[in-house]
Design brief:
The chain has 351 residues and is of the alpha/beta class. The protein folds into 2 domains: 9-157, 3-Layer(aba) Sandwich (Rossmann fold); 162-349, Dehydroquinate synthase-like, alpha domain. Helices cover 53% and strands 12% of the residues. The chain is built from 16 helices and 8 strands. Helix 5 (96-109) links the parallel strand 4 (89-94) and strand 5. Helix 4 crosses helix 5 and helix 15 packs across helix 16.
Length: 351
Amino acid sequence: MFSFNLPMFLAIEENITNDLISKLDKEFKDIANKKIIILTSKGIYEKFKKGIDSLIKEYRKISIYFVEDSSYDIAVNVAKKISIEEFEIVIGFGGGKVLDTAKYASYVSKKKYVSIPTTLSNDGVASPIAVLKTFEGKAKSFGCNSPDGIIIDTNIIKNAPNILLMAGIGDTVSNYTALFDWKLESKHKGIHPNDFAYLLSDTALNMLLYSREEHIRNGNFIKQLAQSLVLSGLAMDIAGNSRPCSGSEHLFSHSLDEHYNINKPHGLKVALGSIASCIFQGRSYEPIVTFLKRYDVDVSPEKLGISKEIFIDTWMKAQATRPDRFSVLNTIELSKDYLEKIYEEIMEVLK
């Protein structure tokens, strides 16, 4: 039977990092005598320098390591450092690049890992997957463990750039088409989705889709976004793969990353992919388009720098990025003319 590794603890509160050591001591015991390494970026360090320096000064067993990039080689080198210098707890404090590096390094070194995001741009805050660069800077997903603990300070998240919060919204929206593709796999291949993983992913989606909050910087909305992304990450852990949150829309994003240098957040690309996937699936995209517009999340191809030619070519190559991943793309025949019409329809509906 497949086993999963859910976090030991989760805290989503305002200003919770102000009392970080007390929180960690409650969960890990005798924290002051444990060697801790904090992985962060130089930019995040400068932004929170006062608090980090105070922490290091008070607890001398804490060291800091600056993550320059989220590559496989860097993550493995950090794992070596953690093992050789006998750190007991790894803390990732930053955005996706920092968290993925910390997550994989702790997994390789077999140490406890605590995720403290400074933004909510994707479900990587809780998922058992680390996205790291490999050859020629191309991203690859590596299986690992979910964090042992997740601490989300909503006051820190409030100060994140709008585009990253919007990306988090987009990443959750992609559950809409991913779950349909998962059911489609069951119909065609007889592989039944894990009911609990499906429920968590669906709950994560609906929690946002039917939220009554009006603004993305509203404290309640940020808490809901955090909960949604955590639930999505846990759904993947329970399923043992990314199926609950990754379908044809993610294949589109993977194809973009492989073939074109579209420097936009992952969540925005998969949200655009979901709109096209709805058309492939024969479903209305109205619920997700209405939701995205409500929070001013603009995922129009034009806004993302995706021309008609790139859009068409990306979809034509999408299935090849994950041949093993069954989706609606396995059931339809894509053509240049068909994709051109979809591109124009999306451009019109997202005006």
